[in-house]
Amino acid sequence: MRLTGRVTLGVPLGLVCAVRRSRGPLSHTIIRPEFARPEQPRPVRRTLRADIQGLRALAVLLVFANHLWGWPRGGYIGVDVFFVISGYLITGLLIRERRNTGRISFREFYARRMRRIFPMATLVLAVTVGLGYALLFASEAQQTLWDALWAFVFLENWHLISVGTDYFHAADGVSAVQQYWSLSVEEQFYLVWPALLVGLWWLARRLPASWRPLRMSRRLPVAVLAAATLASFGWALWQTGQDPTVAYFSSATRMWELGVGALLAFVAPAFVRLTPGVQWIAARLGLVLIAAAALLLTETSAFPGPWALLPVLGATLVVVAGIPTSGPDVGLLTNPVAGYIGKISYSLYLWHFPIIVFALVLAPPSPALSAAVIALTFGLSALSYRFVEQPVRRSTWLSKRITPRTQTTWRAHLRRAATLGAVLMLCATLVTLTWHNANARLRTTAAAVPEESAAAVADLRKPPGEAAAGGGFTVEFPDEQGIHQAHLRASLAATEWPELQIGDDWDDWSLNVNSGACSSGFGEARFCTFGDPGAEKRAVLFGDSNAAAWFSALRPTFERQGYYVEVYYLVGCTAADVPIHEHQVGAPRNQNCEDFRADVVGRVADLAPDLTIVTSFWRQAELAMSGITGPEAENEWRDGTVRTLEALSPHTSNLVVLDSPPGSESIKKCKTAGSVPTDCQRAVPELAVTVSRLNSEAVARVNQAAPPGNVRHQGVEQWFCVDGTCPALLGDLPIYTDGIHISPIFALYLVPLVAPSIVGE
Length: 761
Prior knowledge:
By secondary structure, the chain is α/β, with parallel strands linked by helices. The protein has 4 domains: 1-39, no CATH class; 50-407, no CATH class; 451-492, no CATH class; 511-758, Rossmann fold (3-Layer(aba) Sandwich). It is 54% helix and 7% strand. The strands form 4 sheets. A 7-stranded mixed beta sheet has the order 3-4-6-5-7-8-10, with helices on both faces. Strands 1-2 form a two-stranded antiparallel ribbon. Strands 9-11 form a two-stranded antiparallel ribbon. Helix 1 (50-69) runs antiparallel to helix 2 (78-101) and helix 6 (180-205) packs antiparallel against helix 8.
């Protein structure tokens, strides 16, 4: 028998009295001895749970490996594990504070959050912005600064949604601070959750007696939280089907993961009696679910609804397994290495992404680069944990609790303010200097090409029709295409960056088409008109965003020849009649795209144009294929193109299938302090070659079915590449705005080549 209670002065040893507070006078207070209360199992009050630290390590390593190597393909689920852990720990902290003090101090809660989150987040942002101005293209560096400002105020996830960032399929380089989206989701949750929890506790005490089941301090918060968690999960299911990008980053579709952790904190006492055998099974099953999610999920999986359930359930099981006072150790999680990685996991998560981004700016992927990234990431994380995270977390910064040991004078506050000001001034100076250096480098560098190509490079700013053949070359070019190929060869041989011919809006591929009279249609569809509606000649340009980009190369000829032109385009919607999916195969089909195509066919029938041009971005074939590969996938694209051509050909005198450009690296991404133009070259993608062949076969089939056919196919590789290699520059002209769309300035250069092939003289 064990005696429990509090020993007080004047009470014999062995007699332990518990004083119970009553609502009556002091004389009604009951003093009751407690000799033999059975010992109740309680969760172990550990300041640091080794299994949770190990789970943090596993989560951050999955994310790190996925970003560095692209494997495991589902490694991004590490973020979901973090959400569960965070919801459990922070809510548990709030529950204990109320139990121990009878209240929750918002000041202390947010002071702890600031000390935990803000210093490291700010440090990484400052370093990232400085490196961005030192290493990146000027416009990319400025974009990094704007991204960092959104991350600084914990709104990065909504910023990524607003700019349409696709976590898995970004056409251009990703933001170096994109990892802050998950931190933003957490902080938005904790901006609301403590106040809501206090409000629910307050309400529970004031409910009428008839609501007794909800008057318990835990029941009302659990009921409301459970309902909100289910609602958030339901919204995630719906939003993933409608717009996976919004679903991935949205706080509304991610709150349920934090909610699961918070619910677990409330119901934790129910698991204190788990037997060691059940604990062993729960821990191992949880790890299996996390591993299955990491290995089986891909960027095409419907996420976060419903497949985030796998890592969330796995993390929940692992946390539950460690709640009782004793249980089996999980060697994968409870070893010293995992424990240390768990300790530095926050710094590791913040540092790894910009290090990877900037490393790939400086050098192509290789085992040596991976080793350097790993070493630098872990080194910086360890130093940050030791000299930034821990000292600030242990300080009383923003805290109201001041002890004689920590009490400071106004002189100490002044010294701190001066130190902070000096650090901020130093950061601003470094950013300014690197900015000026980057701009100076852009202004002063010149192209260096083989001597025999010098004359051709000197003419690169002239259209091919005005460029002089011969010059430094030893061969004569009988046509403009031959001159153009020589210019491409000279650009492929360049070893230093030229002073680029760019200005305001140089990378706005839609600038020309959207400057006309445009109206909106299905989704983000655009219908634009140019010229006199009463003109004798009429033309239509129809397709995805590449149609808008191509218009810059066609518009001067249309205007010169007196065409009335209508341009119809919908970003991400191919002219080929194939089932385009929303961002990923397996997601719902894009109904806006199908409605758009049907509407365009009707418009062409009404207009009866002399010339109709259709174009489809070749990479969209990845989203058009219904999860199939090989000959079946090719048949799907070919048949879809045939259907579009058969629908249009009866209503137009001439129908041209125009391929989309093969693409290259984006200048904004690959032009850095450590790169040369050859780093931006790219081979013609195999899929682009395949789609061009399928387009040609579709044209042949349509012409064969209705001879003499009025349908032509126009390949474009010869305008962008030489012998299968494609530069990102032509002399000092950027060929692409983002690696996909032709830049308006290069489109003007191509006019003498494109117009005769498409429009005719």
